[in-house]
Amino acid sequence: MKVGQYVGFLVKDFLLSSSCVLVVVLLALPLGSVEMVRASSLWQIVFAGAIYALVKNAFIETHELGRRAQIVSFFVCSTLANIIGVFWLWRFAPGTMSGGLALGLLFAILIVKGGTYAMMHVDGRREAKQVNERLEAYRGGGEE
User: Fold this and answer.
1) How many CA atoms lie within 13 A of 121 on its CB side?
2) What are the pLDDT tens digits along the chain (144 aa)?
3) Of 100, 73, 75, which Cα lies nearest the Cα of 86?
4) How far apart are CA 83 and CA 122, in angstroms?
5) Quick one: 75 exposed, middle or buried, by C-beta within 10 A (0-12, 13-18, 19+)?
6) With a threshold of 0.70, does the pTM exceed it?
């Protein structure tokens, strides 16, 4: 699959999720108040749609990608979803969130993700080595 097709799927999911959230908000808003939808509400809808589309593509959609492309897609989409989530909290949280705290959260997310992938890589190599040893023992036992 080409990158353009994959980005097209991601944009389509983003637009669908954003429009669905927008419709729900526009239907529910008049029930509670008579004020207009503010720009900050619209930005929050855009952020929610982007996070949903990225998490969906990270965990659910494969779009017939190869194994390596799926891993890269998972890492990129989940990291972008986390970054947008931290930015959303930083921008629209009721309390004050300093830029240093937001930066610290981003670094913590990246360090945890990097450590997790490093452990998964080492564990995967160890399991592959064990499978190869068992296969060699099986082949060696069958030929004698």
Assistant:
1) 8
2) 677 777 787 788 888 877 877 777 777 766 655 565 567 777 888 888 888 888 888 877 666 777 777 778 888 888 888 888 888 877 877 777 777 877 887 787 778 777 777 777 777 777 778 888 888 888 876 554
3) 100
4) 26
5) middle
6) no
